[in-house]
Amino acid sequence: YDFNGSAALAASTSDGIDIVAALSRKHLGEYSIGKNGTLEGNPGGEKPVFTGSDTTSGLFKAGLDLENDQRVEFGFVGYDASFTTSTALATNRNNNHVRNLTGTLTYTWNPDDPLFDLKGQLWWNQTENQQWRSARNGSGAFDLDYGLNTYGFNLENTSTVALPTGDLSFHYGTEL
Hints:
Layout: E1 3-12, E2 17-28, E3 53-66, E4 70-86, E5 93-109, E6 118-133, E7 142-163, E8 166-175
């Protein structure tokens, strides 16, 4: 471990505003074999390369209470990592840079009415990997980049009906 740490901050006000934020970071150096002795299965004495990584992640969330039992929240989560993987003899080495980002916007409405406990959410997610691969199996070194963007929303409600034997709740909604 070269470094591993995190920090978080949260605050709220009496007028219905709240915020939370956090950040973490970790740096692991590459593994190195010792200088004494030998490594079995390593006839050429080549130094193996194992995973080293550099990772940063964070989150942010802010909420606001509105009038009439309504609330709006914005959320963001991010992850960014660079790391190396290889076979035991370092013949196949991959250097990766992975990033994942997610954003949400949430609306809730919970009036003093048993028929409504409404929640709607919009979301977005992006995942991508940029990879460099060393030469192998007769082909030269090459880059490989791929990613995925997704978007969606959901809407759900819970309605409660009072019966002589107790309350009956219906939870229903849709997602796309």
